[in-house]
Amino acid sequence: MNRFYNDLEEQYEIEAAKKLAEKEIILNLSGMDSTDSIEQAVKGLPGVKQAATRMEDKQIKITYLPEQVDLEQIKEAIQEEGCQIINRLD
Questions:
Q1: How buried is residue 83: exposed, middle or buried, by Cβ count under 10 Å (0-12/13-18/19+)?
Q2: Is the sign of the CA dihedral 47, 50, 56, 59 positive or negative?
Q3: Which of 13, 51, 54, 83 could make an SS bond with 31 (beta carbons 3.0 to 4.6 A apart)?
């Protein structure tokens, strides 16, 4: 029984460490005609945990692991979909 709790505690600590390593950014975009293709392009990058667009605000909110993907890769994926980053909100 003790081993079970030790394993559970270790798993919890691992998940907590992963959360600390995650970063979240919100980008304002121009040229956004559709949300699906931009989301899919960004979600397809290794290290991107979540990507959600808001068409009415022309924004994308991205949760990512900076040790696996950098902002330049995210920028390139967005630009390949025909959008430009106007600014970054943090």
A1: buried
A2: negative
A3: 83
DSSP symbol at 7 = H
The string of pLDDT tens digits covering residues 14-54 is: 676 666 689 999 999 999 887 789 999 999 999 999 999 99
What DSSP string runs through 29-81?
EES---SHHHHHHHHTSTTEEEEEEETTTTEEEEEE-TTT--HHHHHHHHHHT
**Tokens at residue 71, please?**
């902002």
Beta carbons within 8 Å of 87's beta carbon, 6+ residues apart = 27, 28
CATH C-level class of 22-89 = alpha beta
What are the boundaries of each domain within the chain?
Answer: 22-89
This prediction's pTM: 0.76
